């Protein structure tokens, strides 16, 4: 199916979504690989839960700093150079993890390299979503792209009873290093084979349509809280399951099953967002509150509770990132580049703070107390999401957007048209 005009056709959109999800998965997988194999890695390298939390947090902190520091040069680098940089960093970090890491300090250094790789991978994927995907498919696009994190968790969980059990935990990182090299090759081929007319057309956004600062900051703060709790679940669920009597293979399968459920819910939520008239952020808040309830359920020290509430936390409690990105991009005046930058920074900040602070708390106060705190983080995040939505809608009423919004495939023509009222917005 060929495209007409500037928007790409359905087939090209599908390739863009899959490509963005794949590169995001490759960048995001390292902390979940070490999370799923935490028991073996900690025994091999000789450090405890607190040190493990620092390593995971450093990965996200490095990605957050790199994202902020390079925000002004990402557009000038272009997709091909970003892809090459991402593949190179992933390959170097994976190779170092598989061959050179001998203790905690060397692990920290390698996690910084992998954090840089994650930032480059996310920037590449966000560039694809912001420049090359038409608005009518962005809900599904963000859902597919943000399925990369649960996919990374699922692959990390499956690595335990397969590659990790046969060849050891280091082999899993050698596989990611090989994939990083393939990405570098792909970047080189992309540069040589770019067809005429394939360069995305940049969209100029005037100052009138710049997203409002306060609700964007509130949304970023909300994802910081939610991401802190969610990344703690992803990094430490295996350790908690091991403490209550599950085997490493069982915890790996738990993470894989929960992540598979999260992928399904994320993609379905994005598809639904493209076919309804707004009201997306209330769904995001509800999903976060399910995460809060699931974390409270994990306080119960029993295998059945870890299975039931762990699956709930993964599949629904962590299904909101794609829908949140899409909704904030729309309410922020259909500006996906600006929205994704703010939300991505908040996600990385939460990814850094969650394993560090909550991981340290679990080492001192125990997991039951920490699960209750994680539940509170999810609860606060949902409240902040609804508050940011209220401010976004108020801004749209005060400053009707010059470019009409679209709902699914239907364009709404201007602020005085028959578009749904503010209460039906995202």
Characterise this structure:
- It is a single chain.
- The chain has 426 residues and is an all-alpha fold.
- It has a single domain (10-192, 207-407, 420-424), classed as MFS general substrate transporter like domains (Growth Hormone, Chain: A, Up-down Bundle), CATH 1.20.1250.
- The protein has helices at 10-28, 30-36, 38-45, 49-69, 74-99, 104-132, 138-145, 148-167, 169-193, 213-243, 248-273, 281-297, 303-315, 321-331, 336-364, 367-398; strands at 406-407, 410-411.
- A two-stranded antiparallel ribbon has the order 1-2.
- Helix 10 runs antiparallel to helix 16 (367-398).
- It is globular.
- The two termini are 31 Å apart.
- Mean pLDDT is 79; it is low at 1-8, 193-205 and 408-423.
What key attributes describe this structure?
426 residues; mainly alpha; Growth Hormone, Chain: A; two-stranded antiparallel sheet; 2 strands; 76% helix
Distance between the termini: 31 Å
- Report the helical percentage: over 70%
SSE succession: HHHHHHHHHHHHHHHHEE
Percentage of β-strand residues:
under 5%
Largest sheet: 2 strands, antiparallel
The overall average pLDDT, rounded, is 79
CATH architecture call: Up-down Bundle
Question: Strand sequence of the main sheet, in spatial order?
Answer: 1-2
In DSSP terms, counting alpha (H) and pi (I) runs of 4 or more, how many helices? Answer: 16
Question: Which structural class best describes the helix and strand composition?
Answer: mainly alpha
- Can you say what the CATH homologous superfamily is? MFS general substrate transporter like domains
Tell me which oligomeric state these chains represent: single chain
CATH topology: Growth Hormone, Chain: A
- Name the poorly predicted regions: 1-8, 193-205, 408-423
- What's the shape? globular
């Amino acid at each position: 199916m060929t495209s007409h005009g500037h928007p790409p056709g359905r087939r090209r959109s599908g390739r863009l979504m899959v490509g963005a999800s794949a590169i995001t998965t490759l960048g995001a997988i390292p902390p979940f690989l070490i999370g799923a194999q935490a028991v073996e890695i900690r025994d091999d390298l000789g450090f405890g839960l607190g040190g493990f939390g620092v390593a995971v947090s450093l990965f996200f902190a490095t990605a957050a700093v790199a994202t902020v520091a390079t925000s002004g040069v990402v557009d000038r680098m272009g997709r091909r150079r970003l892809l090459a940089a991402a593949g190179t960093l992933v390959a170097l970090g994976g190779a170092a993890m598989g061959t050179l890491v001998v203790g905690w300090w060397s692990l920290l250094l390698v996690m910084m390299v992998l954090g840089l790789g994650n930032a480059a991978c996310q920037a590449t994927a966000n560039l694809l979503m912001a420049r090359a995907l038409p608005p009518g498919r962005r809900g599904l696009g963000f859902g597919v792209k943000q399925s990369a994190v649960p996919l990374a968790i699922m692959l990390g969980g499956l690595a335990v009873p397969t590659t990790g059990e046969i060849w050891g935990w280091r082999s899993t990182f050698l596989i990611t290093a090989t994939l990083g090299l393939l990405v570098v090759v792909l970047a080189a081929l992309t540069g040589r084979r770019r067809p005429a007319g394939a360069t995305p057309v940049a969209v100029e956004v005037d100052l009138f349509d710049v997203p409002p600062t306060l609700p964007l900051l509130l949304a970023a703060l909300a994802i910081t809280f939610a991401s802190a709790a969610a990344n703690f679940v992803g990094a430490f669920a295996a350790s908690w399951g091991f403490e209550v009597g599950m085997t490493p293979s069982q915890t790996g399968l738990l993470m894989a099953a929960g992540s598979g459920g999260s992928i399904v819910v994320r993609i379905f939520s994005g598809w639904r967002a493209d076919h309804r008239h707004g009201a997306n952020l209330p769904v995001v808040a509800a999903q976060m509150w399910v995460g809060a309830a699931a974390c409270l359920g994990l306080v119960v020290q029993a295998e059945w509770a870890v299975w039931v509430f762990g699956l709930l936390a993964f599949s629904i409690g962590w299904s909101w990132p794609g829908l949140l990105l899409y909704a904030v991009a729309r309410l922020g005046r259909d500006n996906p580049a600006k929205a994704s930058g703010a939300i991505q920074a908040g996600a990385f900040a939460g990814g850094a703070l969650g394993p560090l602070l909550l991981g340290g708390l679990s080492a001192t106060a125990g997991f039951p107390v920490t699960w209750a705190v994680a539940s509170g983080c999810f609860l606060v995040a949902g409240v902040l999401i609804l508050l940011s939505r209220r401010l976004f809608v108020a801004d749209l009423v005060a400053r009707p957007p010059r470019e009409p919004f679209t709902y699914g495939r239907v364009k709404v023509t201007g602020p005085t048209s028959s578009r749904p009222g503010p209460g039906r917005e995202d």
